[in-house]
Amino acid sequence: MADDRPERGTSVSTVLGRRLGGELLRMREAQGLRQASAAEALTASVPKVAKMERGLVPMRDPDIRALCHLYESDDDATLARLLGLAKLDRERRKANGWWNEYPALRDMAEYVALEDVATSVRTWQQAVVPGLLQTADYARALAVANGAWADLSEIEPSVEARMARQERLGGEDPLQLWAVVHEGALRQLVGGRQVMRTQLAHLLENLARPNVRVQVLPSSAGAHPGMSCAFTVVSFDEPGAVDVVHMDTASATVWLESELDAAHHGAIFDRITRLGLAQRNSEQVISDIRKEM
User: What is the SS3 assignment for the chain?
Assistant: First the structure.
């Protein structure tokens, strides 16, 4: 696979940076102001303001305060929300993030960086076990079946990188994970029966973690609101930080960054959970499927 990683550092446009810049852009336009006015307020150049509004550079708190004052949007709630986004964005851009040690994560770098500073993740998966709960053999089998690897030697580093992500579920401040998985994904023989037996055992082991919740959506649930696609909702602790929705398609990664999209997918996730089995019953289903294998 070609090395098409985005450049790191302050010239990287991130999900959070784009959202922050977009909000400031809308606030400026709502006041009928040009970028030159913003530049004057910051004692900066117009090209710098353009980069800020496109999410290409990290933003300093004093600059955000100055722009919000200029745009007459410096109430406490708005400032708290935008300053929270800026803090998260600066964390995301840190060049010493552990994921940079894994070139195989280049296609997932932006998501993993968000996951690293998130407090919780809610994920709905219809076809596969969530990446944070996969075994190495399961992840390897998925990679081989994907068929997109020009160089099969890259698969093993990819598997190692996925396993490294799972360290986020441990430690002093572990990620809170709530995963809903369709029953069909648990019955799919990815890698064969032995690989699946081990994978299902791994799921049961993770259920013992206080920060991990897994629900099975049984086939008997019938039609449900998550049939169109799988998705992940990433949440943060900072005041005013809006959830980010992440989806993978066959050809692209999709980010949904607005409050409306976050609320919409959060509501879909809630409806799916109401159709899913309770954790104790989910644990029994996983155990029964494992025995069948």
Answer: CCCCCCCCCCCCCCHHHHHHHHHHHHHHHHCCCCHHHHHHHHCCCHHHHHHHHCCCCCCCHHHHHHHHHHCCCCCHHHHHHHHHHHHHHHHHCCCCCHHHHCHHHCCCHHHHHHHHHCCEEEEEECCCCCHHHCCHHHHHHHHHHHCCCCCHHHHHHHHHHHHHHHHHHCCCCCCEEEEEEEHHHHHCCCCCHHHHHHHHHHHHHHCCCCCEEEEEECHHHCCCCCCCCCEEEEECCCCCCCCEEEEECCCCEEEECCHHHHHHHHHHHHHHHHHCCCHHHHHHHHHHHHHHC
